[in-house]
Amino acid sequence: MQINSMIQNKTLYISLTGELDEYTAAYCRNELDNAFNIIGYNQIVLDLSKLTFMDSTGIGMLIGRYKKVRQLKKQIYISNPNNQIEKIFKMSGLYEIMPKIS
Amino acid sequence: MKEENQMILKFKALSENEGFARICVSAFLASYNPTIDELGDIKTAVSEAVTNCVVHAYPNQKGDITINVNVLNNQVYISVEDYGCGIEDVDKAKQPFYTSKPDKERSGMGFTVMEGFMDKVNIISILGQGTKVEMYKYIGECAKVAFGG
Fold this sequence. Notes:
- The complex is a heterodimer of chains A (102) and B (149).
- Chain A has 102 residues and is α/β, with parallel strands linked by helices.
- Chain A is built from 3 helices and 5 strands, in the order E-E-H-E-E-H-E-H.
């Protein structure tokens, strides 16, 4: 699991590369929380185009991040999930709190 | 009719083995021409079942997980079994968003995902002895036409 972030036009883009499961969730949680501490952005986009696998452990972790981001009064969006990950997002209703953007 | 094929995999209930378990099961099934979506469904369902064993089955010393995969005429049977504490209330555990560890950022979606991605799921659990999750799925779009599944 690799996590890269950058700010462009006041948007914090965070890219997740690899597989998100029970093994990588704790690392991912810490890296995302660290990335959120950067100043100078008003919304977050999670780019999942390089995330090749995710199970429901990822959903739990993302809901936790949503709560964190809400405390910071920011909005968080999902972009480019693969078909499999999209199915889990739809099943869990995650898009209701983290809308998908293109 | 092809001969029934079988694979048995045994490993320790550690989270670093989850990727290994998913890859083994999908590699074993690759020669049965599953679609990418079907293989993705199976990998996710296996990952969910293994995560349950890793997170819940062995609160003290980590024990083993056994995965058994049988294939016959493109019907896949997968069992994921642990020898741990067992599930007190299986019906409750199956409820979407129910988690016994709400403080640990768990989604409670594991069994819901397994049931959504596989054709049939059975859970057999005995307190103090362990849990076995049995999952069934047809693979290969051609197989569905040929066998009327």
